[in-house]
Each structure stands twice: as C-alpha cells, then as structure tokens.
Amino acid sequence: MKSRILTCTMATIVFALATAPTRLLGQAIGNDSKHLHYSVQVLEGIGGTASRANSINDQGWVTGWSELYGDTAQHATLWRNGVLTDLGTLGGLNSQVEFPDKNKRGIVLGGAEISASDPFAENFCNFGSNLICLPFMWRNGVMTPLPTLGGNNGYATDLNDRGQAVGFAETATNDPNCITPQVFDFEAVMWELKSGEVQELPHFPGDRIAAALAINEKGQAVGGSGVCESPLASFNASLHAVLWPHGPNGEVIDLGTFGGVMSNLAFYINSKGQVVGISDLPGDATGHAFLWENGVLTDLGTLPGDFYSVAYGINDNSQVVGQSCDVNFNCRAFLWQDGVMMDLNSLIPASSGLYLVDPADINSRGEIAGQGYDPVTGNSPAFLALPCHEKHPVAEDCGTEAAAATRGLGESYERPKVILPPKLREQLHQHRRFGAFGATRVRSQ
Q: Which residues contact 106 (CB under 8 A, 6 or more apart)?
C-alpha cells in the first residue's frame, strides 16, 4: 500500500464540511439555485496524468482511481482526511472504483485484477491487460475478493449500511450469443457481507444478462439488463434500465425508455427511491440523462449546444450530477436541481485553472466528486467541489473568493466551453462507456 499527503489549500473547509451536520448543510443548500457556487480542489493522484473521483460518502471519503507513473496501469484510490491511499490490487496490474459507493462502514468496493491471465481473454473490467478481474472489498488496509457465480470475473459496485453489496459476476455458462470478447454470461448479484452469501438478481424477461450498479438503505437496487457484452465496455448492451425493489426475490421492474432500444441504464438510487441514469432517444443516435420517480421517467435534457447527457449521481436533496457533451464529445459537468440543468463550470471561480468534465457523485452535503481537465498541463486530475452558500457553515472561509470571481454571490456566468484533447475524449469513451456512437465521434477537432 502507498500513502501520500494530499496537497490542499483549504484544509479548514474540508474539516468544517466533514464535521457539519448533514441536516444543517441540506437546509443551507436548500433549493436556491441562483446562489449556488463552489470552491474546487484538485485531488493529488498516485503519479500519472489522470485520475478520477467516482464516489463521495457523507463522511467525505472520496474513492476512484489514479494512474500510476507512466500511465501504464491504474489503481483504486481513496482520498480521506487529506491523505491519499493506493488501495493496490489482488496481485495483478490494475484496480478501480468506478461507481458511487456511499456506505459509512469504512468499506470500499470495486474490481481488481489477479496475476492469472484470463484463459478466454474477455477483458471483463476493460483494462486491456488480459488478466482475470474479481470483485473486491477493501477494509482497514486489506483487499479481499468476493465470490462470483462460478465464472472467472466479477465487479462490486455499491454497499449499503445494512451490509448488502451489489455488482455483477460471471456464471459458468458459455454463451454463443455473447458479443466478442465476452464469452460467459454474467448476472446482477447481491452479496450479504455478514454471511458471505452471494445471490443472483434476475435479469429482465427475454434478456441474457444483468448488472446491479447501486443499492440504497432500503435494499432497493438499480442497474441494467440486456445482451451479453463486456459490461464495462459500452452502455449499448443495456436494453432496460431496471429496479430490483426487494432484492433477490425474483421481481425486476423496467423503468422505461425515451424511445431508444440500447443504452438504457440506471446508475444510482437515493433513499427516496429516485433513480438517475441514461436512456437513448428514438433511433439510438444519442441518449439523455433521466430522473425516474414513482413510475415517471423525466428527460433532463442537455446543456445548451450539446446533444448527449448522462446522469451518474443523485443525493437525498434531489440534486443530480452528470455529464453533457457536444457532437464531438467535448464534455462538461452539470448540476441539475429544481428542473434546471446548470454548467458546473459556471458555478466555480472564473479564476479556476481546472475545467470540470466528468462529475460522478454528490453526497447529501452537496459535495461533488469527479474528473477535471487542466488546459495548462494537459492532465486530467480528480476534483472535489465544495458548496459555498450565504447560509453555509463555512461561507466565510470559501465564499469570498468564489463570490467575487463569479460576479456576485453565486450568480452563474457563461464560462467558454473547452475543447478537450483527443486523448481525454478517448479516456472518457473507455471509462464512461459512451458506446458505439461515442466511439465514432471522438475526433481531433
């Protein structure tokens, strides 16, 4: 394991946010979107040029991945109390935390490679190293694998405080209908950490596979169901965004679509039962972020001038974060609340050197974790955006600079869109799985 100190110029803010009551912060943020603004921190990586923060819980634990020196491999990463920890692997080259994992039990979930080669070269976790990739649980400095359904590979995505973890795992069924390089079927699963038992969650009738991406404190899980294709390679394989309302009891609910056949996938569910994700429009040329609640699927649209969007996270204040992209996949972070989608870059200081590209999660205190882009260095580091508000407990510490830079107390301004380099757009394609239409649109312009 490796640890290094996180360079941070606003440690007092982190401490205050970490110790402030969630209820007070939720009330402070409220629904007054015109007064929203944020202070942004760059989270130091392990040594490579790219890292991404994909999860932030209410204790302020940030998890994701960071590339190692030389950008030849990536490791699952934890940023906690100003300290960066390399979570290592299960003996192989790579590991990652790719999905929001909100638990407060001190446990981190993800996928990690072992040293053995995959005899079927499936590239299950999309690392391209031809090694077997297993679901892992990390706790107190120790990474341990979780069981699969008899196959070689799997991935753990989320854990609630009841000790129920979800993800997806391969079976021993060699399926000739799988899309190369995938060979074996895989299913959504739930692990009961106390008993060590793994249970299969059903796929939607008529589909071949399923994957669970999130679970709330009520035990409600969400994800996707569809055709057999490498699960971390494309959204396209998910034909149905689904909800398992009562865990592994055989019931699975289709959340509906915007008219497209592919790329229908639910990413997260909060304690209220609100679900966010992506659904293709008719013709499957593009997809839009959605919010599902009480049987109603709402199209969140895109930022002005964009054609594609996806929602990754939602907190219990119904604030949604995600990504909006133009036709060339120059992407930017959005925050959606009260029916309004805002460019997160217009809510941070104009003097900020970081362009926020890929927000993955938001906790109940309104803190946002994701990936940015530094036009000066060309690096794409992880970021943490901390909300500043006139009623916020730390407004005096973080509000002055941000407010001045954004021309008033949180009033948004139009920040010019940044043209991302082809390398970053390709990374976004690989790690955020834009699917077939995304792969063809990563251009040099």
A: 139, 140
Q: Backbone phi, then psi, for 422, in 5-degree steps? A: -55, -35
- Using CA atoms, how far apart are residues 84 and 144, in angstroms rounded to an integer? 20
- The answer as to whether 213 is a domain residue is yes
What is the C-alpha separation between 160 and 271, in angstroms, rounded? 10
User: Both tokens of residue 155?
Assistant: 């991935």
161 lies in a domain?
Answer: yes
3-state secondary structure of 15: helix
Q: How many domains does the chain have?
A: 1
What would the DSSP string read from start to end of 92-110? SS-EE--S----SSSEEEE
Q: Which residue has the tokens 């994800």?
A: 223
- The DSSP line for 29-64 is HTT-GGG-EEEEEEEP-SSSSBEEEEEE-TT--EEE
Domain region containing 239: 93-254
**Which region holds residue 273: left if phi is over 0, alpha if psi is between -120 and 50, else beta?**
left
Lookup result for tokens 């669970």: 212
- 416: in domain: no
347: left (phi over 0), alpha (psi -120 to 50) or beta: alpha
Dist CA 161 CA 175 (whole Å): 35
Residue 290 placed within a domain:
no
Q: Is the pLDDT of residue 17 over 70?
A: no
- Interatomic CA distance for residues 299 and 287, integer angstroms: 10
Q: What is the pLDDT of residues 209-253, one digit of tens each?
A: 999 999 999 999 999 999 999 999 888 899 999 999 998 887 999
